[in-house]
């Protein structure tokens, strides 16, 4: 399964509502898990079996709870048993459509030159 999740404190101790210190605690849990993952500006995506992914998300949430009395958690999951490395394969599957667009444009340019 692939799960994209966002965990953040709902309370911060600074005037700018900076959350990076608390969020870094969650990202550290993910990095130390050994599971394939990717962190972007809004979500962390992690891939593995149901129990191991959910355990990492739970521990990441607890890491933020340690510094905030209230925590927000959003999870989106793609559950597809029997498939691995889908974090990369889904992107590759999408990208091939763009490379086809480039090939089609080159073919159209070649036809216009005749």
Helix tally? 3
Strand order of the largest sheet: 2-3-1-4
N- to C-terminal separation?
Answer: 50 Å
Largest sheet: 4 strands, antiparallel
| Unreliable segments of 5+ consecutive residues | none
Number of E-state strands: 4
Provide the gyration radius in Å: 20 Å
Category from helices, strands and their pairing: alpha+beta
Beta content comes to 15-25%
Q: Give the overall silhouette.
A: elongated
Arithmetic mean of pLDDT: 89
Helicity, in percent? 40-55%
Organism: Corynebacterium hadale
Family: Belongs to the UPF0045 family.
Protein name: Thiamine-binding protein domain-containing protein
Region (Disordered): 94-114
What does this protein look like?
The chain is an alpha+beta fold and 114 residues long. It has helices spanning 20-33, 50-65, 86-112; strands spanning 2-9, 37-39, 44-47, 71-78. Strands 2-3-1-4 form a 4-stranded antiparallel β-sheet. A hairpin with a 4-residue loop joins strand 2 and strand 3. Helix 1 runs antiparallel to helix 2. Residues 3-95 form the Thiamine-binding protein domain. It comes from Corynebacterium hadale. Residues 94-114 are annotated as: Disordered.
Set out the fold topology.
Layout: E1 2-9, H1 20-33, E2 37-39, E3 44-47, H2 50-65, E4 71-78, H3 86-112
Antiparallel strand pairs: 1-3, 1-4, 2-3
Helix pairs in contact: 1-2
Write a concise synopsis of the structure shown:
This protein has 114 residues and is an alpha+beta fold.
